[in-house]
Every structure is written in structure tokens, then in C-alpha cells.
Amino acid sequence: MTATVSRGRKLDAETAGRLRGFLRQMMLIRHFEERVGEAYSLGLIGGFCHLYIGQEAVAIGTIPALRDDDYVISAYREHGHALARGVPPRSVMAELFGKATGSSHGKGGSMHIFDAGRHFLGGHGIVGSHIALAAGHAFASKYRGQDSITLCFFGEAAVNIGAFHETLNMAGLWKLPVVFVCENNFYGMGTALHRASAVENLHQRAASYGMPGEAVDGQDVVAVREAMDRAAARARADGTPTLLEIRTYRYVGHSMSDAVHGTYRTKEEVEEHKRRDPIRLLAELLKERGGLEETEVDEMEAAVKAEVQDAWDFAESSPDPDPSALFTDVYAPEA
Amino acid sequence: MAVLTYRDALNQALREEMQRDDRVFLMGEEVAEYNGAYKVSRGLLDEFGPRRVVDTPIAELGFAGIGVGAAMVGLRPVIEMMTWNFALLAIDQIVNSAAKMRYMSGGQVGVPIVFRGPGGAALQLAAQHSQAFESWYAHIPGLKVVAPATPADAKGLLKSAIRDEDPVVFVEGEMLYNLKGEVPEDGDLLVPIGRADVKRAGGDLTLVCHSKSVAVALKAAEQLAADGVQAEVLDLRSIRPLDQAALLASVAKTHRCVVVEEGWAFAGVGAQVVDTIQREIFDELDAPVLRVTQADVPMPYNKHLEKAAKADPAKVVAAARRVLYLE
Predict the structure, then answer these.
(1) Are B79 and B63 in contact (CB under 8 A)?
(2) Other Cβ atoms closer than 10 A to B297
(3) What confidence category does residue B258 fall into, taking pLDDT thresholds of 50, 70 and 90?
(4) Of A203, A236, A292, A315, whose CB is crowded by the most CB atoms within 10 A?
(5) Per-residue pLDDT at B186
(6) Domain boundary among B159, B183, B207
(7) Is the pLDDT of residue A326 over 60?
(8) Range of the domain at A132
(9) Between B56, B106, B166, which is nearest A108 by CB?
């Protein structure tokens, strides 16, 4: 899709159709997360909860480029990644509500969304730790002689932890087919990137691990997809991993207990970033060059709202796990 | 039966399981070209090649996590820790990833992995290289913890651990690698996880032990026998799951018990053993249960101080005489 989008011409029908799909998916994630915030304030969701609002183009620019036999693994801001991988909104919402019908049967919650059938392998709550797991999935692909790849998401704060360094070194050394996606939203909780990392162009760190690195505009879903296609092709061809630093911004606080602005960033800064909203940018592109009508946007909006409402209703009406579930899944059942 | 060292029994278990199942691979520092820091993996690179016997950089956290990630998608990794002291760098992956994956995924994703290597003190290795961590891992639901004392148990338990569907912490005895013993040659002979073993039968008191402390308890039992006291030596073999039935059966018979372990006393394996006994068969006890452990200090280097810090047969005999009210 790259060439046709990069120039100022009218989009071909296939590209325009695909981008319409992206727009709808990004709108779904946005609306889903807005309703999650609402459910949290109503006390229907507990624990820690980290919203993805503002970063939607990263998930949608990357995950749909994968095959079914590829693997996806993420950290704790992963609702959007799960939805992008095709985990049903009902299943994700029910997990957030802690219900038996949730993706992890109510045992994982917001930070531990799993869908093994879709090769969505969590949902991990310790910063950076799952980066090593991603390399393990890729190691297994290579061990079996398969050309499946692994897509691993983490925030920019994770690049300063040992697991990141140790894993990327081995991934580079052994050519493990991982696309490492660093979603750089410029704040690790309340600590700005420039206060935490000696090198602010994080993709440059790839040089230390013998792998390509690239900085990408994370608010432009087309740019994200193009970078992802390049990285995925390298990984699939000969296992070469890539570090993608995808620069984005979260419109909301780190978690539900964190204010949008005030302590570590200003209202003006947040508003400035919202001017480059990934959903609006894509809608504008499609209107200018893809024949998208405002009425279609309205229809999409209504459809995703209905889908999320359905997920909410499903979650709310689902049963809690049976009390006996407390003691299952600690160990494998006796053979 | 063949007579093998503990080291070669482990090697045989690895070889047999790798021959049996292509999903099994060995990864760790110096496991391939160097043949293992303690030579447990001798010859495996030659037989199975670098795809299945993988040397790593010194990066415990990273390669432990790679092992867990590979196990999540169906491989059967055996991750060698050069010693359990170094596994402290990897404990996040063992505890936060391996142990909890099945539960927090609602049963979707299991982690069939073995973390293995030597634990406990050797000789004059000082504070950072002389630690027994069994109780740390046994604390965690989702992990299994085994610590064999003999070559036969080492082979049989390692084979069971590799075939297990859940993460197993496999603690070898650093001072046991040269220990010789009879080992069954049957490649399918497994020692079940969670089953203790009576290493010496007796009716006067029970010495509960595991790993290297089994040899200490057996020596103490010999010395006690010279005084006409018959000690039963119960080797736990598995710390988690604990073989409660075997433990209670022995103590219900002898009515007296001393727990011997290499680790520190506070919140140690023995604390769990004592809890189990007093809770389940309080009325059977004729004396308080005593414990012989490492002194509550980091391990000193000086050999006399080190000896004073360690559990030894004399300390076990003294504790035994106290529970028998002989002194």
C-alpha cells in the first residue's frame, strides 16, 4: 500500500478500502477505551487500568500486518492491542469487569488479557519483563523452522530496564524474528523521557544490538504500517529483528488515578498533541483522496458505539467466576 | 543397574529426554562448548548440535525469559543456572512469568519448563555463592520445587520435571555431583514429583531432610545407631508439593522429629514441615520438633567459621538426643 499512499494522488480502491477498515478499528478502540474509563469511574472495573486513547494508530498500523500464526505480546496498556488482534470486545470488556466470560475468565483483569487461540499472549504487568518472553516465542518459531514472527509492544520507559537490553542483545545475536515496538508516548508514568534516558532517539539503541532501528510518526497510521511491513519482511526473511520507535502520545493519565495534565505536563502540551489526532488525520486523508463521506464516518461511529455497548451489556450481565475457580489453573490438571 | 555419579545421572536424564522429545532443549551459560560449568551437559552439544544445546551470554534474566516464552508456545526448555545464586537475577521471570502464566491467563497458557542448577554451599565460596533458596521458590503457588539427594533420584526426578506441564525449580547439590550410586537403566523409569522416600528405616525418631542434608542425616543416624537409637531418615525429594502423607506417617510412628536443611531457619523449609506436623498430628508428638539449619548469618569464608555455620552430623545427633530427652 505504500507507494499509492505516499504521493498526493487519489487512493486506489483496495487501499482506500483497507484504510477505511483501519479507521473503523481505530474508532472502535477509541470508543471502547472511553467507555472503559466510564465503567471504571462507576466502580464496574477495579485495580489498575491503563487506557490507550491517543495511541490507536500504533496498534492498527502494526497488528493487522501479521498472519494468524504470528504471535503478539504486550505490556499492561494492551486493551487496544487485543482488540486489534481480533479478541472480541465482549471478551475484553468481560475480563475488565472480572467476569467468567472474560478472555482470562476473570483471573487476569486489565493487565492480563490473553487469547491463546489468536496467539495473543498477554497482557504483562512488570515493565519490560515480557520483552524476553517475546524473544522466546520467536526462538520457538525459529527452532521449529517456521517463518512466523513475534510482535512485541512496550512503552519507552521499558528501554531502561535490564530485560530490554539482555533480550535485544540475544535477539540480535541469534537473529530472532521479533518486531520490537517501542511506543514512545514520552512519559513513563510521570517521568519525561529526557529525564530517564541518556539517549532520546531511542531507535538509535538498535545499533548496540546489531539490528535495524527506525523512528516512526505514530499518529500517522500509514507511516506506521509502512515501517511495520518493512520490519515484518526482514523478520520473516531471515529472522532479522527490528526496533521500531513509534512516537505517539496518550491523551489520558498513566492510569485511572493519574490526572490528564497538571503535575508533569501542561494542558497546552496535551491540547497541542491532540491537534494531530490519528483518527482525524486518517479520516481527513480518506475524505481528500479516498472518497470518504462524512455520513460514512457517522455510520462507523454509530456501529462502533453499538458494538461497545453490546460488549458492556454482555460484561455486565455475565456471571462472576464460580468460587471453585479460585483453586483451578494453578497447575495443569492431573493427566 | 549401573553405578553412576550424580552428575552423569543428570546427564543421562537430559540425553534420554532430548532423544525422546525434539521439543526439549538445553540453554544456559557454558552449557554447550564448555560442556557445562559442572560438566552436567558433557557431550550433549556433540550429540544434539547447537540448535538444541544453546550457549548464552551472561544474562540470566534474559535467557530465563526466553525459555519461558518458548515454553508458552509449546517447547520444553531446560534452563541451566550456573548456580542458583545467579538465578536471583532471573527471579522475576521464574516468579512473575513462569509461575503465574497459567493462572492469569485463565488456564490458557502453561509453562512446561525446568530451571536447574546447583544450590547450597560448597567449600569456602563465601557469602554470595553459598545459599540454599528452595524455600523461596517453594513459597510460590504455580512452581514445583525438587531437590534430589542421590544419583537415582536425580535422574528420575529430572526426567519427571522435563515431562511436567508446569514450571519446575530443580535444585542440584553442588557437593553431590561426584556422589556415586546405583541408577536404573530403564529410560522410562521416573521418580514422581511430590513423593518423599525413606532412605533409612527406624522407629525412634524421624530425621526429615532433602538434598545434601540427606547425607548429613544418614551419618547422624549411623552415630545414633551406635548408641542404640534407630532414626528414620525421610528424604523429602520434593519441597513443593510436599509429601504430607509420608511425613505424617513417619512422625506418627516415631513420635519425634528433627528437620535438617542447608538453608537458613527463618521461614525455611523446616518451618513448613513443623507447621504441618503440629497442625495434623499434634497429639502424636512426644517432644517439640527441633531444627538443624545453617547459622543465621551470611556464609563466612574462613573454613573453621564456615564449618561452624553449616548443619553437620554432630548437630543433628545433639538435636536428636534432645528430642529423645537423652540430655
Answers:
(1) yes
(2) 11
(3) very high
(4) A315
(5) 85
(6) B183
(7) yes
(8) 48-275
(9) B106
- Last residue of a domain, which of B132, B150, B183? B183
Q: Is residue A288 one of the residues assigned to a domain? A: no
Q: Which of B17, B29, B60, B172 is catalytic?
A: B60
Write a three-state SS string for chain A.
Answer: CHHHHHCCCCCCHHHHHHHHHHHHHHHHHHHHHHHHHHHHHCCCCCCCCCCCCCCHHHHHHHHHHCCCCCEEECCCCCHHHHHHCCCCHHHHHHHHCCCCCCCCCCCCCCCCCEEHHHCEECCCCCCCHHHHHHHHHHHHHHHCCCCCCEEEEEEHHHHHCHHHHHHHHHHHHHCCCEEEEEEECCEECCEEHHHCCCCCCHHHHHHHHCCCEEEEECCCHHHHHHHHHHHHHHHHHHCCCEEEEEECCCCCCCCCCCCCCCCCCCHHHHHHHHCCCHHHHHHHHHHHHCCCCHHHHHHHHHHHHHHHHHHHHHHHHCCCCCHHHHHCCCCCCCC
Q: What is the ipTM of this complex?
A: 0.96
Question: What is the per-residue pLDDT for A230?
Answer: 98
Chain B: closest CA distance from residue A67 (Å): 16
Which residues from chain B sit within 8 angstroms of residue A105, using beta carbons?
106-107
Name the β-bridge partners of B173: B119
Q: Does A120 touch chain B (CB under 8 A)?
A: no
Q: Is A166 on the interface with B (CB under 8 A)?
A: yes
Does residue B71 lie within any of the structural domains? yes
Q: How confident is the model at residue A262 (pLDDT cuts 50, 70, 90)?
A: confident
Question: Does residue B210 have an active-site annotation?
Answer: no
Does residue A2 register a pLDDT over 70? no
Q: Which of residues 108-137 of B touch A (CB under 8 A)?
A: 108-110
What pLDDT is attached to residue B291? 98
Tens-place pLDDT, residues B132-162: 999 999 999 999 999 999 999 999 999 999 9
Residue B125's contacts (CB-CB under 8 Å, 6 or more residues apart) are: B299
Domain co-membership, B126 together with B176:
yes
Domain count, chain B: 2
pLDDT at A3 over 50: no
Listed range (A255-269, A289-303, B18-32) with the worst mean pLDDT:
A255-269
In a domain? residue A293: no
Residue where the block lists cell 501542561: A266
- Write out the three cell numbers for A110: 486489565
Query: pTM (2 decimals)?
Result: 0.97
Q: What is the residue whose three cell numbers read 487506557?
A: A51
**pLDDT one-digit tens code per residue, A92-126:** 999 999 999 999 999 999 999 999 999 999 999 99
Task: Assess whether B60 carries a catalytic annotation.
Answer: yes
A118 close contact with B: CB closer than 8 A: no
Contacts of A123 in chain B (CB under 8 A): 104-105
Pair (B104, B208) in one structural domain: no
Q: Test B57 with A134 for CB contact under 8 angstroms.
A: no
Q: Quick check: is B171 in a domain?
A: yes
* pLDDT tens per residue, range B172-210: 998 999 999 999 988 888 999 999 999 999 999 999 999
pLDDT number for residue A85: 98
In a domain, A112, yes or no: yes
